[in-house]
Design brief:
233 residues, mainly beta, 7-stranded antiparallel sheet, 1 helix, 3% helix, 42% strand, globular, signal
Length: 233
């Protein structure tokens, strides 16, 4: 069990007021949470296309055959991915790339996403990019499993931003972060946004990062089983 505090924020921006992704923050609510890992059924990429209505699906990344324990990934289903890799935690551990304590990253076997910001790159992002005009152009995030890798220091924070972007401009930004209360190796836990009701709805981009409390060091993390609902424009 990971011990953490979940903080949620909502930022409503005027249409066209901002073109960048760096916005002023306002805390709306804070609560202590205890969450358990949830296993979702695999949904392949073919389930995401050819519909303009609501589609409930889970991005498991398990239908990808990896040539190596850790491989690059730039697109999955109708999403473009930036600063992410895909990996098999068990094979990566056997290859000496990660400690055995991090083989729990894949809540559905065998694969999970590995995120970290390159020195000169952007924070890890998933951006919905429909293949054609009939595909859904927005989504609701319902839940996903996540954890920081390695020996996690106290007060390390995992950040999640959700964006509604129209014509290249941020209309609404949702933000949540999880702060670890104990040091050491961590278990996977599920951020269940369905409990929050309003966070986040009708977005087309997600951004993740993990940092130490002083903000000086980025930290690797893993994500699996993103449960979403694709919706029309």
């Amino acid at each position: 069990m990971s011990h953490c505090i979940l903080v949620v924020m909502l930022l409503a921006m005027l249409m066209g007021a901002h073109t960048s992704w760096g916005l002023e923050q306002k805390i709306l609510t804070q609560s202590d949470v205890e969450v358990t890992v949830i296993h979702f059924h695999q949904t392949t990429q073919q389930n995401l296309a050819n519909s303009s209505g609501r589609i409930n699906t889970t991005l498991t990344f398990d239908d990808i055959h990896l040539p190596d324990p850790v491989s690059n990934i730039s697109r999955y289903a109708n999403f473009n991915l930036t600063s992410f890799q895909i990996f098999d935690p068990i094979l990566a551990s056997k290859a000496g790339l990660f400690p055995p304590e991090d083989t729990n990253c894949a809540t559905s076997s065998p694969n999970a996403l590995l995120g970290s910001r390159p020195t000169t790159g952007t924070w890890p992002r998933l951006i919905l990019d429909p293949s054609n005009s009939t595909d859904p152009s927005y989504f609701h995030i319902q839940s996903f499993a996540i954890k920081a890798l390695g020996l996690v220091p106290r007060d390390l924070a995992l950040h999640v931003n959700g964006f509604e972007i129209t014509n290249g401009k941020v209309v609404t930004m949702y933000q949540a972060f999880v702060m670890y209360l104990r040091t050491g190796y961590q278990g996977m836990f599920v951020l269940d946004f369905a409990r929050l009701g309003w966070w986040p709805k009708r977005i087309n981009a997600l951004e993740f990062w993990a940092q130490t409390s002083d903000g000086r060091k980025d930290w690797k993390f893993c994500i699996d089983d993103l449960k979403i609902a694709l919706v029309g424009s």
